[in-house]
Write a structure and sequence with these properties.
Layout lengths: L14 E2 L2 H4 L11 H14 L4 E7 L5 E6 L9 H4 L4 E2 L5 H5 L10 H8 L1 E7 L6 E5 L5 E4 L4 E7 L6 H4 L5 H18 L4 E6 L2 E6 L4 H6 L1 H12 L1 H5 L1 E8 L15 E8 L11 E5 L2 E3 L2 H11 L11 E7 L4 E2 L10 E2 L2 H17 L59 E2 L2 E2 L19 H5 L30 E6 L3 E6 L2 E6 H17 L10 E11 L2 H9 L1 H6 L3 E6 L2 E8 L7 H13 L6 H17 L9 H13 L13 E5 H7 L5
Parallel strand pairs: 2-9, 13-15
Antiparallel strand pairs: 1-4, 2-3, 3-8, 5-6, 5-8, 6-7, 9-10, 11-12, 12-15, 13-14, 16-17, 18-19, 20-21, 21-22, 22-26, 23-25, 24-25
Bound molecules: adenosine-5'-diphosphate and magnesium ion (MG).
Length: 668
């Protein structure tokens, strides 16, 4: 992560903006509540290059807001200018407005605040011999004693406008908003220390990360994110660091001239919350609320997030300042991108990529032993909603395993009839299973498992060697529970896998990959059925099969009428060849019937593939051999997004030894 931490600009004089520039500026400084004042004053401190910012409040900020910084300060002669409307040191002309890098640029905040409250600005400029305080009401300037930096004190907000004061909420609510106004910049600036006091009590304090950590990038941000949002946020999120260029640009022009850099952390789907209160987006260091960004992130989670859950994330977008207009909203919380498509794509891809990497695909150092439990079970209750069952965000790497136990196909041993597979129903068809010959090696895998393992003759992988439990992120299979779950053992302890959900995701990702990037003519590889599967079809099914013959072909299906009331499935996607062809055909026809033939595969592609995957995935209550279970685990480790099923539910959970020990009150 390396959101740019811009060094402070050299000192410039405060001057009144020229009239033609004033007319260009989004008008109206908005001071709604104490938090608006806090935000403006903290912005000013950051613009002044402060490394320590202390905010003191009384009565939720209504009685007093004092923001103290150690920035470059304001020289005595310019103090009165600082309180003047449209007077700023940050821009001089239109050109500078268009590429502004500071938070402020309108020269309005201090003037607006001074108009609705008692203001005192005390400052000592770098190199100045003394400090001076300016009383905003009287205009009196007097010497004071203080170190280099500035303190702005704002007393009795809205004292002269009781109507507005009435709109303020309780002190506690206003305090919460002020805290948020400090949290936002704090998340983007780990190099700056922040402290917030209320009624003489230290409410929050985040220490500045040392320069060495900042140079390291990542570590400093992680520490700050952890300080502000909690350790769990970092534990349950993945880093993202992607530089993107507009996909529209011709390839020879993708020269990073207009790069959009997206870094930060995005929560794993499991960390999503009911409320969107942990969603932070920064554009060039400025906290923004932006529909393009929110939508881009949301769409990246589309495939992995369940229902209305809100993802958690902190995203830093860096973009050439001339490609984003910050001058669109009085409070500067909104921005306008010159090319919002470019930004949307960059963000979506970066987040998607980060989420796609299967966290289980990590190589866990076998020597690492048992990591400390992420979430020790401290209350002794066994509650599915508690943090006991959390899925740890394992570090991922590009680990493709060298010891491949078995291929994916081992899950679905193909019964060959004259070279073609039949489309037999998978869940009930015991004959479809490999012959129960065991070469003995499987027994070594089945520690303490009474279930007779059946060895797939075609499976000639490394099964002969007993697997050390620590070698595989998802471990080695031990048993199947209730026909629904696979139990496996890894270095951390117990892994529980929802086998249907996991397999469904694997099949879905495989279908998506096969269909590719929706190029013209691309189709799922199809396999003809030796004996067509026939079924009595409704009139709608008949019509859909006829009308959508082409989309069906794209999906690897050939469905033709056999009689007035019967359809025949003549070919199915090869990936799903072992499924129930009739059930597959019926549900795809049902999906297609809802769409317009010409656009259906483009628009509803993923939905249809997801439906198909469900048919192709192993059913509950199907007995799996240990080899099949291991094959599924290995496949999960290699499949993108395999931590969630197609409906966004988790596919596996880790229960650590520590958690088990806690459960049994076994002291360690
Ligand atoms: P803006 O930030 O848009 O320039 P403000 O009204 O917030 O307008 O501030 C006016 C000017 O006062 C700034 O341009 C800056 O030169 C000076 N100023 C305000 N706060 C500080 C501070 N904390 N440290 C140094 N200079 C400051
Ligand atoms: Mg300002």
């Amino acid at each position: 992560m390396n959101a740019v931490l811009t060094p402070p600009a050299p000192r410039r004089a405060i001057r009144e903006l020229p009239d033609e520039l004033i007319s260009q500026i989004a008008a109206g400084e908005v001071v709604e509540r104490p938090a608006s004042v806090v935000r403006e004053l903290v912005d000013n401190a950051l613009d002044a290059g402060a490394t320590q910012i202390t905010v003191r409040l009384l009565a939720g900020g209504v009685r007093l807001i004092a923001v103290e910084d150690n920035g470059i300060g304001i020289v005595r002669e310019e103090l009165p200018m600082a309180l003047k409307r449209h007077a700023t040191s940050k821009i001089r002309n239109l050109h500078e407005l268009e590429s502004v890098g500071s938070f402020g640029f309108r020269g309005e905040a201090l003037a607006a605040i001074n108009a609705i409250a008692d203001c005192v600005v005390a400052s000592r400029a770098v190199d100045a011999t003394g400090a001076f305080a300016l009383d905003g009401q009287s205009g009196e300037l007097r010497p004071v004693a203080r170190a280099v930096g500035t303190t702005v004190e704002v007393k009795e907000l809205f004292f002269s406008t009781p109507a507005r004061r009435k709109f303020l909420k309780t002190d506690a609510t206003e305090l919460a908003h002020c805290l948020e106004a400090v949290r936002r910049p704090a998340l983007a600036r780990p190099d700056v220390g922040f402290a917030l006091w209320h009624e003489g009590r230290l409410v929050q304090q985040w220490r500045a990360q040392p320069a060495s950590a900042i140079a390291n990038g990542m570590a400093a941000f992680d520490q700050r994110l952890s300080d502000v949002l909690g350790a769990e946020f970092v534990e349950r999120s993945v880093t993202l660091d992607g530089r993107s260029v507009s996909d529209n640009a011709p390839s020879d022009r993708r020269d990073n001239r207009h790069p959009v850099r997206v870094s930060g952390r995005v929560g794993i789907p499991d960390a999503a919350r009911a409320r969107g209160d942990q969603q932070f987006c920064y554009v060039n260091g400025r906290f923004v609320r932006d529909k393009v960004l929110t939508h881009a992130v949301r769409s990246a989670y589309e495939d992995v997030l369940h229902g209305h859950r809100q993802p958690v994330y902190v995203l830093y977008i860096e973009i050439d300042p001339t490609r984003v207009d910050v001058n669109v909203h009085p409070t500067k919380i909104e921005v306008r991108f010159r090319d919002s498509r470019e930004v949307h794509q960059a963000v979506r891809h970066a987040v998607q990529d980060a989420l796609a990497k299967p966290r289980a695909g990590a190589t866990l150092a076998p020597a690492a032993g048992l990591p400390p439990a992420l979430n020790p079970l401290d209350n002794g209750t066994f509650d599915a909603s508690s943090r006991f069952w959390t899925q740890p965000a394992m570090r991922f790497g590009s680990a493709t395993s060298p010891h491949r136990v078995s291929d994916f196909e081992a899950l679905w041993p193909v019964r060959r009839v004259d070279g073609a597979a039949t489309a037999s129903g998978v869940e009930s068809d015991a004959e479809g299973l490999p012959s129960p010959e065991s070469n003995g090696s499987a027994v070594a895998l089945a520690t303490g498992n009474a279930m007779a393992p059946r060895q797939n003759a075609a499976d000639t992988g490394a099964v002969g060697v007993p697997l050390p439990a620590g070698d595989w992120p998802l471990g080695r299979a031990l048993a199947q529970l209730q026909g629904v779950y696979i139990l496996a053992e890894n270095a951390q302890g117990l892994v529980i896998v929802d086998m249907h959900a996991a397999h469904e995701r694997i099949v879905y990702e495989r279908l998506k990959a096969q269909l590719g990037a929706q190029q013209d003519g691309a189709a799922l590889p199809s396999q003809p059925l030796l004996i067509p599967a026939t079924f009595s079809a409704t009139a709608i099914e008949q019509a859909t099969a006829e009308e959508h013959a082409e989309p069906l072909r794209t999906l690897g299906l050939e469905i033709t009428p056999l009689s007035a009331s019967t359809l025949a499935v003549r070919a199915v996607p090869s990936t799903l060849a072992q499924g129930d062809a009739t059930a597959l055909a019926r549900s795809v026809l049902a999906e297609l019937a809802q769409h317009d033939a010409s656009t259906v595969v483009q628009r509803a592609r993923d939905e249809i593939l997801s439906t198909m995957a469900c048919h192709g995935a192993v059913r509950a209550n199907r007995r799996l051999t240990l080899e099949e279970m291991n094959a599924l685990l290995r496949q999960m480790e290699e499949t993108e997004r395999s931590d969630q099923c197609n409906h966004g539910r988790p596919t596996w959970r880790q229960v650590t030894i520590r958690e088990l020990d806690n459960l049994f009150m076994r002291g360690r």
